Amino acid sequence: MGGSNPYINSPNPPRPKTRYRIHIKGLNQTIEVDPNKIPYSVSGLPGSILEIALGNGVSIDHACGGVCACSTCHIYVTEGANTCPPAQDAELDMLDNAPDLRPTSRLACQCVPNGSADVTIEIPEWNRNLVREGGE
Question: How far apart are CA 107 and CA 122, in angstroms?
């Protein structure tokens, strides 16, 4: 067998060590991620897309509080997915409940980019909280 996977049996993937950006399609917003400022908020794994997005004023619904107990923070990682650890069984189980699954689907609370490249995500329209974003 090849090298071991550092994410297996690890409750928290390693945090990024270098600065990178999260580009959010549809909102035309870019978040500059400074690993020294993690955690940005209290929901999701430290360094997760959910945790960083919320800490930068981007609302992603997360009914369970970001503990991988629902699928409301479902996003699409359209670029830079290779910088994120593979989804673990708990995340895959929750994604089974998410609408409009795609090969790029992830739960924002579990997806922790390693910072080796920028990441582009798409928040499905049905998953945006328009009241918190100032919409109607």
Answer: 12
Domain residue ranges in the chain: 20-127
> Per CATH, which fold does 20-127 belong to?
Ubiquitin-like (UB roll) (3.10.20)
pTM of the entire structure? Answer: 0.84
Nearest in space to 61 (alpha carbons), one of 113, 125, 3: 125
Q: Convert 64-120 into a string of H (helix), E (strand) and C (coil).
A: CCCCCCCCCCEEEEEECHHHCCCCCHHHHHHHCCCCCCCCCEEECCCCCCCCCCCEE
Query: Over the stretch 20-67, which tens digit does the pLDDT of each residue have?
Result: 999 999 899 999 999 999 999 999 999 999 999 999 999 999 999 999
